Amino acid sequence: MKILAIQFRYLGDAALMTPALRAIKEHFPGVALHVLVAKEVAPLLEHLPWLERVWAFPRMRGKARLAQSWPLIRELRRQRFDRSVDFSANDRSALISLACGASQRLAAARPGGFFGRRFCYTQTLALPRGGHQALSNLHLLSAWGIALPEAPQIEICVDPACAGLAEQLVPRPIILCHIATSQPKKEWPLNSWVELYRHASAAGHELMFSTGVTPRERVLVEQFKKLAPDAPVLPVLPDLATFLAVIGRARLFVCGDTGPLHFAAGLGVPTIGLFGPSSPRIWAPLGRQHRTAQSKECGCGGDTAVCLRANPCMAAISPKTVFELISQALAESPTRREPKAPCGQK
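Request: output the structure for the sequence above.
Response:
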């Protein structure tokens, strides 16, 4: 049997899909499980040894790059998939699900979209609202008789080729703090990060800071360096695969509600997630080793990237609260965590 799983959302969504991928693999022994994701997402999944193949789809938001995508779709059709499951269920993924030609095509029933989107699938399933995203993915698979695992976990494997550089950058386990997110409204204020650094350093904890690769995120880290010139900051990393290898060497990972929070969880690193406008009940990593700090409910909503309140909701999370969560996490695991070994090649 050949099955194609499709996910065209953000990096974090791809990480949260991995418990469902594992459930498919275990329910159908011997299945050749393929995954189709956006090109920039592929490094998250490429080194999972139980996936048959990760297909990297060339995309640009808001544009249909037919000339680049059609050869890939044609190659996918040649695979003759028996089933496909679309975890995105948006207009683009619906059309590609249809074009790939699997005889059974499953997706969540979502409102909106172009007329006829539901006809791109042979089966849709209404999902419960307000549940954790990873569990919603698993609930979708109940249409195929796949039971919910007792302890679903995100899985990510490090590219062995990146392990050496990661060890040079992070020679010993540290507390890695990621100060940026894709949306400014989800970011903890820089002054709060600086105060946390002072508290943690005084207690003898070794912190290191990282950010993303966009121009806005690079400006953010330069501002942080001015506020805390003695704080160690990771250099700009060459690619996502190297960043994953660096995260895998952390003893503890602290950041807002963004993809790297789930990367760390998938690499076996305990996390502390800082939540404001989004809900930890839906988006926080699953498991006792993961902790969250939640500000009061924010009214900035989901349609704007910037918090509209005079006092942004993320500012309500105090550095003292986060420092106490760090202390709890380190007390629970008093010995230094050994980095997760890179996964072998398929």
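Residues 2-144 form a domain with the Rossmann fold fold (CATH 3.40.50.2000).
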